[in-house]
Design a protein that fits this description.
mainly alpha, 64% helix, AhpD-like
Length: 185
């Protein structure tokens, strides 16, 4: 059981309240990731800020979800895989075959998205040391050097949330339960 407080907009430190209220207004609930990050308002603000910047990248909504899901699966984050599976399917309108392949670590049906997933996973596994053939394959698939750096931004965003979820033992919100996922040991 987590020793961290799962904050509400009322119980959170003042610096985190507006973000929790905004999340609740937008989605109808406070995601448990946000509720736990509220224990450190600067971390919550950083996560939200990174998300806003990642939304400004040259990736389309499906490509952004490919990056975020690939990182979350690679890091074994049950909360983020569930949340981003739902976001990918319902908001980004990613094909089920793409989301399922990411969740199951199998090949994606779209070669370009497969290249993005492989590059992202390699970035996580190699802790950023991705040059030579992996970078060349990413570029050959039609991506740019700008997008390689935008993958780093997505990896940064998800690493913050994935690690925070591991530390705080974040439980998946019931609203994401239809996309529940268990990490493989």
């Amino acid at each position: 059981m987590s020793e961290f407080t799962l904050h509400t907009p009322d119980s959170a430190p003042e610096a985190a309240r507006a973000i929790l209220q905004g999340a609740k207004k937008q989605t109808g609930f406070v995601p448990n990731l946000y509720a736990n990050l509220a224990n450190a308002p600067a971390a919550l603000e950083a996560y939200v800020g990174l998300g806003a910047q990642f939304d400004k990248t040259s990736f389309n909504p499906v490509e952004r979800q490919v990056v975020l899901l690939a990182v979350s699966v690679e890091n074994g984050c049950e909360f983020c895989v569930a949340a981003h599976s739902m976001i990918a399917r319902k908001i980004a309108k990613a094909p089920d075959a793409v989301v399922d392949a990411l969740r199951n670590r199998t090949s994606l049906p779209d070669p370009r998205l497969q290249a993005l997933a492989v590059f992202t996973r390699t970035m996580v596994k190699e802790r950023g040391w991705v040059t030579g053939a992996p970078l060349e394959a990413f570029i050959k698939a039609g991506f740019t050097h700008q997008q390689a750096l935008e993958v780093v931004l997505g990896v940064t965003m998800k690493t913050l949330s994935n690690y925070a979820n591991h530390l705080t033992e974040t439980q998946t919100n019931v609203e994401f339960s239809s996309e529940a996922w268990k990490r493989q040991a």
